Amino acid sequence: QIGGFAWENCGDKRDPVVLQSLSVAPDPISIPGSLRISAAVSSSKTMAAPLKAVLLVEKALGDLWIQLPCIDQLGSCTYNDVCTILDNLIPPGTTCPEPLLTYGIPCHCPFKAGSYSLPASDFVLPEVELPAWMTNGNYRVRVAVSSGGEELACVKLAFSLQS
């Protein structure tokens, strides 16, 4: 599907972490602009450090999908320690930012097993200097999260960007 927001779980049926629902508006996503997201995730297992995330990011070029490289931590990157990245963004001991705080969604490892749900919430996408290869277009992203070599979650997203 070219254009239009879509998502699916791509993991094994035994993956402990499953995206139950996800909606994003507007479509296409506008940068800068406001993004309204609602989501629900269930986890049958605590996710603890080290958490590894592997991203595969592709952009449509005509009928072809081109894999985008990992440049300055953007693109098809492997993050070996997501917990430390979160700790650097939000120092441990500080409260999680809104709307996570209101809905009891954790922003630090370990993430306890359970169900987490984010009702429709608005996020501001600031004016950012995106590299030329990350501008307008249709994208596909695959995110796989694992710990100790065991896959915990796998999600595929498709979306369009306009700046």
TrEMBL record:
GO terms for molecular function: enzyme activator activity; lipid transporter activity. One of its GO terms (biological process) is ganglioside catabolic process. One of its GO terms (cellular component) is cytoplasmic side of plasma membrane. It comes from the Eukaryota. Keywords: Signal. Residues 7-159 form the MD-2-related lipid-recognition domain. Coiled coil: none annotated. SUPFAM superfamilies: Ganglioside M2 (gm2) activator (SSF63707). The keyword Magnesium does not apply. This is SAP3 protein. The lineage of its organism: Eukaryota, Metazoa, Chordata, Craniata, Vertebrata. The gene is Gm2a.
